[in-house]
Design a protein that fits this description.
The protein is an alpha/beta fold and about 300 residues long. The chain has 8 helices and 10 strands. About 40% of the residues lie in helices and about 20% in strands. The mean pLDDT is about 95.
Amino acid sequence: MLVDRIGNTPLVRLRHILDGVVPPEVEIWAKLEWFNPGGSVKDRAAWAMIRDAESSGRLLPGMRLLDSSSGNTGIAYGMIAAARGHALTLCLPANANRERKKILRAFGVEVIETDPLEGSDGAIRRARELVAEHPDLYLYLDQYSNAANWRAHYETTAPEIWRDTGGRVTHWVSALGTTGTFTGTSRRLKEYDPRILCVSVQPDSPFHGLEGLKHLESAIVPAIYDASLADADLGAPTEASILLMRRLAREEGMLVGVSSGAALWGAIEVARQLDRGVVVTLFPDSGERYLSEEHLWP
């Protein structure tokens, strides 16, 4: 089945981009999540949430799946819903790029565009309104509050990192969107070894250009977020993250999205403070979904 191909993504060591930047005894490894069938890390959480809806009996005949998304979770939902025979409605900020909108419509998703000035928070509010108005029509997956989101990473992402580093991982660095990746992976890694330091990365300003990431002080904080898991929290600057995104393509052959640039920025900031260690981060998606955004690729 298609969903059986979700997970077990490559973990690759970065080299050229780090020359002269971090101490030679410090390794930085990146988990390449665009190798999932839907093209992003969100396949993991989307499948866990839909599987939970199916197995719990909450998804009744005739109901539509409903959620909000800035893009990648929606695409993952769309792929899995099509494969499983479910109808899906998605609330999406109107300024989401055209690649994402085209992919969603290709999967047959009903897209409800929301105020671009309200971002992902506006999409969340519209989804809540819809389920309140039509509770018998929609099953609201609510990725920001759904425990199956973080459990997907507790059950898959963290064990893969532990396995593929041979238990050598010393630091875990993750950018914050729904916060499921950071929360679930951190919780499990600390169970493997409490000495592993977990570092979250979010935009350094409410007005940022890091699509898919949340500046938590100025946004609706996801209910699944567990701040106690963060040994440190870093604020990534937009321009530096974009520059690293471009350099990853040209120096490592990795065409990634801007959130990967932010994750790498955080990993480098951590690595610079070490004499030795194994720093693991995660690149959520490919840059192919951002090629129409000319400011990213001059």
